[in-house]
Amino acid sequence: MAGSMTKEDEKVIPVRVALRCRPLVPKEINEGCQCCLTFVSGEPQVIVGNDKAFTYDYVFDPSTEQEEVFNTAVMTKEDEKVIPVRVALRCRPLVPKEINEGCQCCLTFVSGEPQVIVGNDKAFTYDYVFDPSTEQEEVFNTAVSQLLLGLFRGYNATVLAYGQTGSGKTFSMGGTYTSEQENESTVGVIPRVIRRIFQEKSKCADCEFLLSVSYLEIYNEEILDLLCTSKDKPIISIREDPKDGIKIVGLTEKEVFTAHEMVGCLELGNSARTVGSTAMNAASSRSHAIFTISLEQRRKGDKSEIMVSKLHLVDLAGSERQKKTKAEGDRLKEGISINRGLLSLGNVISALGDESKKGTFVPYRDSKLTRLLQDSLGGNSHTLMIACVSPADSNIEETINTLRYADRARKIKNKPVLNVDPRAVEMKRLKQQVQELQVMLLHARGGVAPVLTGSEPVENVSDILEQNRCLQDENGKLSRELSEAVGQTALMFERIIMMEQTNEKLQSKLEELRQHAACKVDLQKMVETLEDQELKENMEVIQNLQQLILELQMPNGN
Length: 558
Ligand SMILES: Nc1ncnc2c1ncn2[C@@H]1O[C@H](COP(=O)(O)OP(=O)(O)OP(=O)(O)O)[C@@H](O)[C@H]1O
Ligand SMILES: [Mg+2]
Hints:
This protein is an alpha+beta fold. It has helices spanning 26-30, 66-74, 96-100, 136-152, 169-173, 189-203, 259-272, 322-325, 329-353, 368-372, 396-409, 422-444, 458-515, 517-520, 523-529, 533-553; strands at 3-5, 18-20, 37-40, 45-48, 52-55, 58-60, 83-84, 86-91, 107-109, 115-118, 122-125, 128-130, 157-163, 207-219, 222-225, 237-241, 245-249, 254-256, 275-276, 284-285, 288-299, 306-315, 382-389, 413-414. Strands 8, 12, 13, 14, 15, 18, 21, 22 and 23 form a nine-stranded mixed β-sheet that branches. Strands 1-17-16 form a three-stranded antiparallel β-sheet. A hairpin with a 3-residue loop joins strand 4 and strand 5. Magnesium ion is lined by residues 169-170, 175, 285, 315. Residues 461-516 form a coiled coil. Its cofactor is [4Fe-4S] cluster; [2Fe-2S] cluster. ATP binds at residues 163-170.
């Protein structure tokens, strides 16, 4: 029942370690030195002597060339590449209202180039530019479908429709889709995505898939579950997990098995979404909506490699001017909240996209929208922004604003990573640990270490697991003994410190005694002058004592 969006920014990445062993140098060879390391072929593992096995991210044996070290460990890994947010500009045709008002088209499209010119001078270039004649199918095939390939390879993706109210965001995304429109060319992105996902899924016969969807709207800064039909809607909150990133607690995540079921979820959510009429758009979205498809996949029979990737399809509410929408009451309140969310989004986009603000604080927390889109902007996602504009000259100011906004978004660099399930990673780690323990165990018994290939029969694995359990018990026992020994050592240290303190005190007392006037008296002279035998003997005792004090004060007690 909970959606999650991992936050790449806060993920901890361990220091990677490459072990490199050089060949024996001539001096060592002359001295008859032998190699004391064994390198496990195909594994980043090294065994020292006969028993100690160590595993690293990379292990380079003495035959490894510099080039291999550079290519394997130094070159940026595919996973760590940054890629910019892509932007598709989409201009809708003039709508009847604009034609009636005598509006003219204020945009010129440069043929064969993804470029648009506003008025007579300002030119903007994007990744794609779709002029008013572009069909929904072309938008999908050109800009969206490639994201789905990434999704099946384990990468998160986001499609985000942005633009002024009435510019065609909901139309482009398919936010009013009902199954009656199934075969129409006006079907938007989301239903097309659903169709394609199920087509792709049926092509992978050797994979098992688990698909689920969630659909939410942010209305007046509150998250509402568009798939929850019950009257007592649970409260939805955003939680930030240091390991898993952003989690949406209480949100319905519906498992689906067919395209029909998934489209059903879209229709259900579309009908529940808050829509209102304004002077700019008869069916204006009054909320930001996020339709999320979760794709979990694994190879049949291989439980260890699970990938979970997410696709967020976002239809934002449009920026609006009260003067033009003539919004009052609830509509006005909604409009203020919509603009506030979009302003936060704009701040996040400019913090991420502006080179001069590089490294500065990104205000994701300023609104629910930016918190939820954290991954899609500057995070772990391949992101496409569809910037929607009206061609009408009456909207030129808003159009320029959108073009600028979209231009900034293009400068955002995302860092998509392959989303391998943490459970699978943990399993891999445990398997590796079993292998290491097995090597140690066999060497301890004087045997030869076999190398696990990962495809051992089940009984073998259960044997190993049993051995692992025994070793863990043994390890636990040794750890307890070790901690006892550590405790005793600490106690001894404490005693040593106390004795040192006592010693210091004694030393200073001795020093005092040595400095004492009694020590300076020439007792020998007195002994010689004394007549009384008894007094003489007593004096000799004192003289010995004086001598002792002087000796004690000498270094090392000598
Ligand atoms: N590419 C297009 N071709 C034909 N009609 C379009 C196109 N884009 C939008 N329209 C029409 O323009 C009107 C407004 O579109 P839409 O509701 O999608 O705007 P919006 O950007 O979602 O606005 P809001 O922010 O108010 O929700 C609708 O009547 C829609 O059918
Ligand atoms: Mg809309």
